[in-house]
Specification:
Rossmann fold; 3-OHacyl-CoA_DH_NAD-bd; 285 residues; alpha/beta; 6PGD_dom2; binds nicotinamide-adenine-dinucleotide; oxidoreductase; globular; 6-PGluconate_DH-like_C_sf; N-(1-d-carboxylethyl)-l-norvaline Dehydrogenase, domain 2
């Protein structure tokens, strides 16, 4: 393998998915959570997702058993000290991530070790600036659900060493069998910078009374062969997440296409966040 000693910080939705694909690829993985209760919850989440994959016929029982034997869980950051690559997937909160990168800088000792972030909207450059070795910091942006979606965005900063970029690209494409695209360190990277204005346009269209929510979605599903219409996709992503993404891109580019429409603001203020709250542009039972 290109890299076989991986650390994952944050064992939530994305961190457990990343840990699962790394362990299935053959890497030894240590998942670090904020406390021991959350580390245990991350273990339960990862193990049940691997077992569901066996039941669904996606992986064999032997693959599952081997992956489980390669996964460890901790609440002690120092246990990541020997890792060749640490992938950060904690909450999308800049001060939390900055503090964590400063701590990882001191903890992860090998000079060739790489510190990567799965952030969707925080500049990788800001995280690199919290370290003494910004040349070893890179963005590695996975998509949800991590085991199913093959894309990874690789985001070097102006400081990232060419050897680090190449090594992480080979790790993602050869070890994890992901499709890698490179993006400059800009809010939204490639995919969200293109997707967000599209989703916001659908919200504006609904807000203007141009068409119903069902017809907007059906138009894109049946007319463009999209698997989900834009308003269903916004509900799936979470309207609070869509709002945060559009705010961060609007702040970066000062371009009206990223400005959140009032309807989106009112829905988030009303707690109508999409599938996770049972109601967004559509209702869910
Ligand atoms: P989540 O809330 O499910 O998980 C975050 C986890 O981080 C929690 O389990 C929390 O306990 C843990 N955590 C917080 N502070 C910590 C610390 N100091 N040390 C260790 N663990 C800590 O969030 P998520 O959806 O998995 O998102 C994680 C990251 O991935 C965010 O940066 C997000 O922007 C990014 N991302 C999310 C998606 C998505 O669709 N959810 C997609 C791509 C990228």
């Amino acid at each position: 393998m290109i890299i076989d000693q991986v650390g994952v910080v944050g064992g939530g939705l994305m961190g457990t998915g990343i840990a699962r694909v790394c362990a299935l690829a053959g890497a030894d993985v240590v998942v670090c959570e904020a406390d021991s209760g959350r580390a245990e919850a991350a273990r339960v989440r990862t193990e049940s997702s691997l077992r569901r994959a066996v039941s669904a016929g996606k992986i064999t029982g032997a693959d599952c058993a081997e992956a489980l034997s390669r996964l460890r869980y901790t609440a002690i950051l120092e246990e990541l000290g020997d890792r060749e690559l640490v992938i950060e997937a904690v909450v999308e909160d800049e001060p939390v991530k900055v503090e964590l990168f400063a701590a990882l800088d001191k903890t992860v000792s090998a000079p060739t070790a790489v510190l990567a972030s799965n952030t969707s909207s925080i500049a990788i450059t800001k995280l690199a600036a919290a370290t003494t070795q910004p040349q070893r910091v890179v963005g590695l942006h996975f998509f949800n659900p991590v085991p199913a979606l093959r894309l990874v965005e690789l985001v070097p900063t102006l400081h990232t060493e060419a050897s680090t970029i190449d090594r992480i690209e080979r790790f993602a494409s050869e070890d994890l069998q992901k499709i890698v695209i490179r993006s400059q360190d800009r809010a939204g990277f490639v995919v969200n910078a293109l997707l967000t204005p599209y989703l916001l346009s659908a919200v504006r269209m609904l807000e203007a009374g141009f068409a119903s929510a069902a017809d907007i979605d059906q138009g894109m599903v049946e007319g463009c062969a999209h698997p989900l219409g834009p308003l269903s996709l916004a509900d799936f992503v979470g309207l609070d997440i869509l709002l945060a993404a559009s705010n961060s891109m609007y702040e970066e580019f000062k371009d009206a296409q990223f400005a959140p429409p009032p309807l989106l603001l009112r829905m988030v203020e009303s707690g109508l966040l999409g599938e996770k709250t049972g109601r967004g542009f559509f209702t869910y039972s």
